[in-house]
Design goal:
This protein is an alpha+beta fold. It has 2 helices and 6 strands.
Amino acid sequence: MINGAHVIIYSKDAEADKAFFRNVLKFGHVDVGRGWLIFKLPASECAVHPSDENGLHEFYLMCDDLDMEMAALKKAGVACEPPSTQPWGILTRIALPGGGQLGLYQPRHARP
């Protein structure tokens, strides 16, 4: 039986992004050796969207109150894009120290 999922975020500065997940987002983790950290994620869900290409994947964090979460991230020195209202939720993007971005949204859709 499938009992979990493993997400990989590729980064040009993996050490900075691992520190962000550990120190700013405060995600629990284990060190599986030589600094390879595996982070515990909050409850998750998966959606399948149509695309002209295979192999494209996105990773979003979710929250109950986007304004409150953005304020906490700002206090921690994390830049967020201005929020935008989508049919499925209110969305921002978090700038990662390694140069990438993560989506963060407050869903307006039913949760499984």
